[in-house]
Write a structure and sequence with these properties.
The chain has 84 residues and is mainly α. The protein has a domain of 40 residues. The chain is 43% helix and 0% strand. The chain has four helices and no strands. The longest helix is centred in the middle third of the chain and has 14 residues. It is globular and about 40 Å long. It starts with a helix and ends in a 9-residue tail after the last helix.
């Protein structure tokens, strides 16, 4: 197997090490995604910083300590009692 792409490069470089970076929680009904993988958030913040929309200090703040800033409460999509 040959690795390609941004996610592969993040793992290969050591900037990302844990497999939970790509974890995604699905609804048991219809497999609708309920969370956003942390690696996606990293990529969005990277683009924001590269475009100048946020400075490097703000980018670090957005990711929080270890990049795991309020993972569940911020990234989980709201659901109703009957599901998403």
């Amino acid at each position: 197997m040959r690795g390609i792409g941004w996610i592969f490069e993040e793992y290969r470089s050591g900037r990302v090490e844990a497999d939970d970076e790509v974890a995604l929680m699905y609804s048991p009904r219809g497999f609708t995604p309920l969370t956003v993988p942390l690696i996606n958030v990293r990529r969005w913040v990277h683009h924001l910083a590269a475009s100048g929309a946020v400075d490097e200090a703000r980018a670090r703040t957005l990711l929080g300590p270890g990049g795991r800033h309020a993972r569940t409460s911020v990234l989980t999509r709201p659901t109703t009692a009957s599901g998403p």
